[in-house]
């Protein structure tokens, strides 16, 4: 009997952080039927490099290497649906996902990986100083969730990056949230991510329309608002 294959989310944590601090959100996604692979980037190994681009570059490579290793695993590999792989990142992890979806880093560094079907970023750092206008190369759907008071990864910079994307792009604004978000914001971000992945990773019928028509998700504060920057094509 063939093994059951599950959709995969490859997770990228924030700069110099570690994935264990996001375990509650990742467990919630796993409880909804996703397999979650959390990468530990070990950013502090590279902080002596003179350029942030050089410090950042190992991150998308690590996501690709982790995916390769999982798919080649003699047991786990047989339970992964290779056609349903997505990226999810927090802060610098959101930028890491943006890179594997096609955005090139300054210096024209290309880490695009076609196996990633879609991506999402929670309070993602999508500053134009990283991409040199290459956001137009992002040709797979992306969801961003950002706080209106975030000064580290500003809502406006994320808005501009997603407007330049060439694929369906969505941005959720969380009222009153900074870069260090509340528990309520984390819960809402995971709920939005599931809605988005149902549309663009699982390809559930009608899910893209449900996502676009959802003004906010249930839960307490913060108040959340969805903005669609690029509608799905025909």
Mean pLDDT: 91
Which structural class is indicated by helix and strand composition?
alpha/beta
Tell me the number of strands: 7
* Number of separate helices: 8
Fraction in beta strands: 15-25%
Q: Give the strand line-up of the largest sheet.
A: 2-1-3-4-5-6-7
Spans of at least 5 consecutive residues with low confidence: none
Which key terms come to mind for this protein?
8 helices; 7 strands; alpha/beta; 234 residues; 20% strand; 7-stranded mixed β-sheet
Describe this structure in words.
- Helix content is 32%, strand content 20%.
- It is globular and about 40 Å long.
- A 7-stranded mixed β-sheet has the order 2-1-3-4-5-6-7, sandwiched between helices.
- The longest helix is centred in the last third of the chain and has 18 residues, at 183-200.
- The protein is α/β, with parallel strands linked by helices and 234 residues long.
- It has 8 helices and 7 strands.
- The chain starts with 5 loop residues before the first strand and ends with a strand.
Secondary-structure map:
Blueprint: E1 6-12, H1 23-31, E2 35-39, H2 52-56, H3 58-72, E3 80-90, H4 92-100, E4 118-122, H5 128-131, E5 142-147, H6 155-163, E6 169-174, H7 183-200, H8 207-213, E7 224-230
Parallel strand pairs: 1-2, 1-3, 3-4, 4-5, 5-6
Antiparallel strand pairs: 6-7
